[in-house]
Amino acid sequence: SFSGTISHDSFGGLDKVGSGTLTLTGSGHSLLELTVKGSGELIFDGASGSFFEFSVNSSAQLTLQNTTSALRIRDLEHSGSILVTGASTVAEIDEILNSGDLSVTDGATLTFTDRFSQTSGGTTTADRAQLIIEEFGGSSSTQTGTIAISDASGSTALTIDNSEDSTFEGTIEDHTSGSGSVLKTGTGALT
Q1: How far apart are CA 23 and CA 44, in angstroms?
Q2: Reading across the β-sheet that carries 123-127, which strands appear in turn?
Q3: Rounded to whole angstroms, how far apart are CA atoms 124 and 143?
């Protein structure tokens, strides 16, 4: 566990390697690059800061819990496992390329402020949580996969708020834990 601040110079980055778990709890983190490698886990427990390029490799896991919108990730590419959990957890990611498992659970809110892309091997779950997508992006090969949703009490599981036209060629379905609803807002068309 590390409760201090990790920051970069003009070219700074950090690789989390190995099979262990590293928990970050501090505020004001600022890195150009952060990569989670190996079979270990990186946990942001109430941590805040900004990250420009973030990667989670295939056997690795990233967990966001007890975070606020002060945690911002610019560009996330992953083929591992990401868990965003807890009613107090609010996170923002600008762009994602999801080739792994992304789960938003137990009242958490995850917002993609720019582009959500997912390959056919990717799965996204909003289980009693909120997932907000600005637009689906990329090529037809990155507009696929499955999104499974169930509503938290009094909220909509999936909101698509696109101001530009976008297309999703995958499947949106109810999660096994219950039914989910979709809200389309914004002036762009969704196909």
Answers
A1: 6
A2: 21-24, 41-45, 61-65, 81-85, 101-105, 123-127, 146-150, 171-174
A3: 12
